[in-house]
Amino acid sequence: MTDLLQRLxxxxxxxxxxxxxAACFFWRILLGLSELLRRPGLLVxxxxxxxxxxxxxIVVSGVFVGMVLGLQGYYTLVDFGAEESLGVLVxxxxxxxxxxxxxxxxxAGRAGSALTAEIGLMKATEQLAGMEMMAVDPERRVLAPxxxxxxxxxxxxxxxxxxxxxFGAYGVATTMLGIDGGAFWSQMQxxxxxxxxxxxxxxxxxxxxxxxxWIAVFNGYDCMPTSQGVSRATTRTVVxxxxxxxxxxxxxxxxxxx
Amino acid sequence: xxGSAVITPLIDIKGLVFSRGQRRLFSxxxxxxxxxxxxxxMGPSGTGKTTLLRLIGGQLRADAGSVKVAGQExxxxxxxxxxxxxxxxxxxxxxxxxxxxxxxxxxxAFPLREHTNLxxxxxxxxxxxxxxxxxxxxxxxxxxxELSGGMARRVSLARALAMDPELMLYDEPFAGQDPISMGAxxxxxxxxxxxxxxxxxxxxxxxxxxxxIADRVYVISEEQVVACGTPxxxxxxxxxxxxxxxxxxxxGPVPFHYPAADLDDELRSRPLK
Lengths: 258, 273
Description:
Chain A has 258 residues and is an all-alpha fold. Chain A has helices at 2-37, 40-50, 55-79, 86-124, 127-133, 138-175, 181-191, 194-222, 227-256. In chain B, the strands form two sheets. A six-stranded mixed beta sheet of chain B has the order 6-7-8-3-9-10, sandwiched between helices. In chain B, strands 2-1-4-5 form a four-stranded antiparallel beta sheet, with no helix packed on it.
């Protein structure tokens, strides 16, 4: 019994300490961002490897999610004779929820895990320590550009995902379901608000970008410098990012759409 | 090194105490390194020689005592001052610690590009000269994964020298080198030290090479400095411990085995059927 309590206490302390380190880490990265402005090349390079290389999975998933959404939405709406509203249904679902959330989950799997593994391996092979001894701060040179690249990339990827998904739904609606294209677009234009829906969705994906980038970079930096440590950190990045994104999405939705 | 005695030592370690986890590595050790010297730190594996370099470089902090580099207390420096101090140091890591996503050329150019505004043409000249010193100018377009361990360490040496440091810390520079590059490297370390006026600290357990170039040697074991002096003083030392270490004798006061229970007892405790 005492053993159980002891382990529970140790685990709690450990988690709180990790949380504290993560917070301090985030603060130091924020302080280091100004230096990054003078060297945009570093950022561009990371946006390429974090953002551009994630495009394939985002594009493919976007189109298919949109097509499925179009089919399922139609089957429900057609019972009420409201199939003309399919465009609204699809656009609202995507801009408000699915776009930011699904993109963040895919991003964690594709880019977050890669970031953690890369940084973890750099730590395990003493590259980060070597950089420190060359008087180059790895937090500013290696970690800050990667974190900022994630924050910039995720909203862009989410926007792309949403657009492609809407076009996917449009394609299914007009070719397979016989819905009039004009009705699809005009209903959407009338019902979707830029500030309430599109902007809120963008704010969500920006928040998810901060979360995903922070977790991925911190886990890599904080991992045990062994192969097992790197593998654990990579898994943790994907799991923790997914859970926090889903939880945060609920909180943001509750705050935004009342 | 006439007159160097009146200058304060470049590195001044006094009463250093350091533990890692439960394990005490140093208790109250004193080490001084004068400007322009080549000082070797020797000792059996696991005595914390690498840790000592990390304490000098400010990556670890002493539990007690002082570690002064160029008159500054390393553990108390602000981040900015510590990084300024590190610009004057070059470190050769045991693993090389090369950046795996850059070629050898880019690795050596890295500190120059980070810290200076030199033109690419000038960087090209410096990098080629540094790589020439370690005999790997021809390998400049290779990635670290394409190099052997010994070659990677030599590229790493070129990188450490790129900023012309005042103080070089070598962590096991001779491990994994073939006899030819070992000889060349040994000469290079001594010559760099004398020609450029560098101060060098070598952590190693290659007795022959180290004694051939060091001005003074500290031998560390079991938390203490057990011997210190010039290579000749060590060779003539009457301490059985030092003699065993220098002559690489398997038997002597230093056990080869990590502390353990009696082998017979351990085997008998689980008899084979």
